[in-house]
Design a protein that fits this description.
Elements lengths: L15 E10 L3 E9 L5 E9 L9 E9 L6 E9 L4 E5 L2 E3 L6 H13 L4 E5 L3 E2 L8 E10 L20 E6 L4
Parallel strand pairs: 4-10
Antiparallel strand pairs: 1-2, 2-3, 4-5, 4-7, 5-6, 5-11, 8-10, 9-10
Length: 179
């Protein structure tokens, strides 16, 4: 078990994990049957998705809030549009990705931003690790705000630099005056 504090079962109203049983495992995630004690003392089970990619980093990945700043324009948030097989359609979302081995969240954010949008930016802020969907998975992320100087030559006509993930992305702008 990871990051779990096993409680003394004799404590009343205390919830705790009894066991975790691997159901199936893929390249990126695994499915487990988690047995736990609820606050009434009843044993229950929960289907849990866990990342297989976390290797000592503070979180699985980064979610980037890219703020594009250009002279004489409103600030914009840069989003990416990409096909997501689990929902069978396209999503408009913040750039995001996994943190590589021996990579800081800030370095991962700058790398992912450039890969997905072509933009180069500067770190403004990085959150502590936060849970993304704790009712389903143990996936965590750092939310990283990045400022982009849209007047710099490298950011005037940026081109995404996709890796081997096979995802084709397009960038969209959302004016902060509309947000």
């Amino acid at each position: 078990m990871e990051n779990q504090e096993l409680a003394d079962p004799s404590q009343n109203n205390r919830q705790f994990i009894i066991s975790e049983e691997l159901t199936t495992e893929g390249k990126w995630v695994k499915l487990e049957k988690t047995t736990y004690m609820d606050p009434t003392g009843k044993t229950r089970t929960w289907e849990t998705v866990k990342r297989t990619t976390r290797k000592g980093q503070s979180a699985d990945g980064v979610t980037i809030i890219p703020v594009l700043q250009r002279t004489l324009h409103y600030e914009c948030i840069v989003l990416v549009k990409q096909f997501r097989p689990p929902i069978g359609g396209y999503c408009l979302e913040f750039p995001a990705g996994l943190i590589d081995d021996n990579e800081s969240p800030e370095a991962a954010a700058l790398r992912e931003l450039e890969e997905e949008t072509g933009y180069k930016g500067d770190i403004a802020e990085c959150s502590p690790a936060v849970s993304m969907d704790p009712g389903l998975s143990n996936c965590t992320t750092h939310v990283v705000t990045v400022t982009i100087n849209g007047d710099e030559a490298a950011n005037v006509r940026p081109k995404p630099k996709p890796g081997d993930g096979g995802m084709l992305l397009s960038s969209q702008w959302l004016s902060m005056s509309m947000a």
